[in-house]
Write a structure and sequence with these properties.
Strand order of the largest sheet: 3-2-1-4-5-7-6
CATH topology: Rossmann fold
Shape: globular
Order of helices and strands: EHEHEHEHEEHHHE
CATH architecture: 3-Layer(aba) Sandwich
Strand content: 15-25%
Distance between the termini: 21 Å
Number of domains: 1
Helix content: 40-55%
């Protein structure tokens, strides 16, 4: 499907806010990139509401710059779909079409996105939107301005915060990429501070503890957990990176 070198895959992470991918699957994306696969990081929302002092217009620019800095650490492409925070799904057809077009541009073999049981309404809306868009991206007249992809991509659901209500079926060993994952998160200085002030959460410690817990389950030092999305044309899939 993807226009990559022989044996290489196109991997696309689609998260609600800039930093969601870094927190929940950054180590896996870094590992894919390190193996020469093409990685695209798509952020549906602007990240414009998560601060006590910076107004949305200013924070939007900050988060965009932070997303670019994080992606550059692994050589990934970045796509910003510019939906205001808290409004994922408010214009369902229009936002879903943006996701369809982003998928067609990236031509992914594998999409990683949120789990439907995640805590944030934007996360939940994005997960449903991605599943619908991944199928619609194969339907030519859904958006005739961009060529449809040839088959439905595989989808993996990434871990929830602290693994709440999420049972992985697959684990990726990120022992070699944990430091890169944390560096990607450190690029989001605005969010490291916001999470500490708003939630009393040291996100860098949170990442390390969560990865160690999943590593214990997965039989390695540090890991990230995933679950296959299985429904209709999404049944066939290859193992996630091991």
């Amino acid at each position: 499907m993807a226009e990559t070198e022989e044996g290489k895959r196109s991997i696309m992470g689609i998260g609600a806010h800039p930093d969601d991918l870094e927190i929940s699957c950054g180590g896996t994306l870094a590992a894919y990139a390190g193996h020469g696969h093409r990685v695209t990081m798509c952020h549906v929302c602007r990240g414009d509401k998560g601060h006590f002092r910076l107004p949305p217009g200013e924070l939007r620019q900050v988060r965009c710059a932070e997303a670019g800095a994080a992606a550059r650490l692994i050589g990934a492409g970045v796509v910003m779909l510019d939906v205001p925070d808290g409004e994922a799904g408010s214009d369902w057809a229009g936002q879903r079409l943006r996701v369809v077009e982003a998928i067609r541009e990236a031509k992914p073999d594998l999409i990683i996105t949120h789990a439907p049981e995640d805590y944030h309404p934007d996360h939940v809306a994005v997960q449903r939107m991605v599943v619908e868009a991944a199928f619609l991206a194969t339907v030519p007249y859904v958006s005739p301005c961009r060529e449809a992809i040839g088959r439905v991509p595989e989808i993996r659901l990434m871990d929830t915060y602290a693994g709440v209500n999420f049972v992985p079926t697959e684990y990726v060993d990120i022992t070699a990429t944990l430091a890169v994952k944390q560096a990607m998160m450190e690029s989001y200085r605005s969010q490291v501070d916001w999470l500490k002030e708003h939630d009393g959460l040291d996100i860098l410690e949170f990442i390390a503890v969560g990865a160690r817990y999943r590593g214990f389950q997965g039989g390695c030092r540090y890991a990230e957990g995933f679950r296959k999305h299985v429904a209709g044309l999404f049944i066939r899939s290859a193992p996630i990176l091991t």
